[in-house]
Structure formats: C-alpha cells, structure tokens
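Collaborator request, handled under Task 6.
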Amino acid sequence: MAYVDFVMKLHNTTKRDYLERVVQHDKPACSEVAIQYGKEYWDGDRKYGYGGFRYDGRSRSVAEDIVRHYQLKPTDSILDVGCGKGFLLYEFTQVLPGVTVAGLDLSPYAIEHAKEEVKPFLRVGNAVTLPWPDQRFDFVVSLGTLHNLYNYELKQALQEIERVGKRKKHVMVESYRNEREKANLLYWQLTCRAFHTPKEWEWLFAQSGYTGDYSYIAFE
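Structure tokens returned to the collaborator:
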C-alpha cells in the first residue's frame, strides 16, 4: 500500500467559506437533506452539497494520471465505487478507448442523471456489498466515498473492494492533519461520518486487509 495523490491539486483550487456554512445556514438541517443524496445534494443550492454537479472535464487529468501511474490498458476493466454521475468513468473511456467500465453509487438520482455515454454501465448499490464476483476488475477506484460510511461499515467496504479487484486499487478519502483542518472538515462536510487522520486511515486499511493505494483530501 502506498500514498499516491491524484486529486488534491484539484481540490485545493476550490474556494470555500467554511464559517458561512455554519453561521449563515442551519448546517444540521442541510446535512439531513444532503444525506438523502437526491436532487438537492447534486444539483440544488450549494448549502446542500455540490450546487450543481455538471460535467466540466476536470476529471480528465485525474483519469490521465491514474492510467499513466497504473499502466492501464484498453483491454482492462475498471470499477468506480461511488461513481456519482459517472464523469470519471467517462474520462477513462476517452483516455483508453475500448476499456470496460462499471460504476456503483448509492444515489438513484446520480445514476438517473449520469453521463449518457456511461449510464448503461452504472447501477445503484451500496459499497458494503458489491454485486460482482471475486477479482472481476483489473482496477478498482473509489474517490470521496468511504468517509461517508459509518465506522462499522468501513471494514466490509474495504474488503469488498479488495475482493472484486485484482492487484491495482486506489481509494481517496477526506481526512485532517491538524486541528485547523479538523475544524474546517467539521464546518464544511455534510455527509462525512468517518473522521480520521491519515494514520488512522492507514490503520483501518491494514485491519481490513486492503492492499491497494490511497490518498486523501484535507481542508486547509
């Protein structure tokens, strides 16, 4: 297992008013809406989530970096756990024409409004029970999903990723490295249920038998 970052550079370009979410909005009420993962979370007001999750091509560089690092081939198969609207999977199909993709997300709304090119390959489901056989995929990726699970679900979800994947796997989670980042994470997050430092995440990975790589985003 190694730390390999593909996302932090994009994450840090987004401007956030951490205090606004707490002071100007009823954050607990907003979280209650967000955890339904419906229209409000994806395409509603920013206080409920993304404020409009639309394809803008920003995932292309992530897909390119992943393909290059893991030396993925057009004959490979890729699974995205927590695929949302399938934007990253779409980019994989553009970077690697002919590649086989599959995605799973908890949100029926996200799957219903997924990018048309990859929509047939996506399904609604939970990360703790992946509906595929052992070692089905050459590469399994999960970006920004696992921290939304409860602690008691994390081990099973990681074991499922390990089970359906072959050697190449990568997960990215939200984390914090100091008290400022912890406060910012608490202020900003709407759906996060697992608040861990990088060292705690590494411990969880080891306890679960996860052998892939990982990265994290921090709210600096």
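The cover message to the collaborator said: "The CA atoms of residues 7 and 13 lie 11 Å apart. The chain has a mean pLDDT of 94. Please let us know whether this matches your experimental observations."
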